[in-house]
Specification:
- The protein has 97 residues and is α+β, with helices and mostly antiparallel strands.
- The chain contains three helices and three strands.
- It has a three-stranded mixed beta sheet with strand order 1-2-3.
- The N and C termini lie far apart (40 Å).
Length: 97
Amino acid sequence: MNANIPDDAVAQALSRVRAALAELSPTVLELEDESHRHEGHGGYRAGELTHLRVRIVAEAFRGQSRIARHRVVNGLLAGEIARGLHALAIEAKAPGE
């Protein structure tokens, strides 16, 4: 672990992601830190949230295309992307899908 990064940096980042996505009032929100799977690859930084999988179900996605849904999630997580979130895998659905 990088000595310059607090041990709880990943937990703090996940908390910020959860808070940002709460704006969509999701009925399901699963966050999976996949950073460890990319050790030695581009964008990986030990002790930081660099690769994230988001599974989200929200009424706000009803009638939206997959690309539109991804744009919404990316927009809400722009701050985390600016902080160093390198890769974001998104599974966004409306209830019942």
